[in-house]
């Protein structure tokens, strides 16, 4: 279920200068990029030229990757997934426990359509291979019984397991959590205008240099990165998208994408091509974009409409846009 989001596109016309508070000279935006979390991470500050803040923000992202990655052997998630046989509980950092607990919340909320214990299945699919292949059907069937979010629980900083086979994949929720922590850090440093972009998972702090909400474009599925289906006004919120066009490959005329159905081990086929979530907390947008996609248009919309501080756009196979209750208030006229 590891994804990553290329569905939120910066659509910014920032103009020339933003005047620093208490200072007569204009400040040019400063930015830092790096390859982290298996994607390109970019942080841009609009009200300060202090590049030390950028360094600190990127280092924070790197530290969280070191906790939550399922492939870095020193990470806590890797240690969970490679725990000795018979281990029924492990103590982890408060941050890791918090992310797992949030993942279990959305696993339960979606009735298992989204499931952080999908790792035995997701590890069978390699969407980054030079020549990706569909996993052997028998191997998928053998791993299906290992999946089930009911098999783990969180108690304080302890992760509890009911068996030896349960493994977790936080790729569908970790980036949102990390983006929120990076935003907290920037606010602690006095930053009031910034954009955090974790491979298309976009979080906006404050307003743009013109004093207006940032404008974030929603990428048109299968189109070029700059081609959008709409633009969202964003201030102190995040935009997160999940879609069949992000990490995928075609084999024998079938498009195989990274959003896996935990009950079958194969990608979802439910008539959706993308779901974009606008939320006050990026971790919620991250979890909901996958959960709502997994549930399909009707049930996904029903779930989203039942929640506060989150709105969405669902794109169906026919290219039509479907808005959750209240979402259109954030959309700009095209």
Order of helices and strands: EEEEEHHEHHHEEHEEEEEEEEHEE
Summed over residues and divided by their number, the pLDDT gives a mean of 89
Low confidence ranges:
1-7, 9-26
The total number of structural domains is: 2
Cα Rg: 20 Å
The end-to-end distance, rounded to whole angstroms, is 33 Å
CATH topology type of the largest domain: T-fold
CATH class annotation of the largest domain: Alpha Beta
Give the biggest beta sheet: 8 strands, antiparallel
* Approximate shape: globular
Overall number of strands: 18
CATH architecture of the largest domain: Roll
Structural class: alpha+beta
Counted by DSSP, the helix tally is 7
Characterization of this structure:
This protein folds into two domains: 8-63 and 180-330, ApbE-like domains (T-fold); 67-161, Orthogonal Bundle (T-fold), CATH 1.10.3980. The longest helix has 24 residues, at 282-305. It contains seven helices and 18 strands. The strands form five sheets. An eight-stranded antiparallel beta sheet has the order 4-5-9-10-13-16-17-18, covered by helices on one side. It has a three-stranded antiparallel beta sheet with strand order 1-11-12, with no helix packed on it. The chain has a three-stranded antiparallel beta sheet with strand order 6-8-7, with helices on one face. The chain is globular and about 55 Å long. The chain has 334 residues and is α+β, with helices and mostly antiparallel strands.
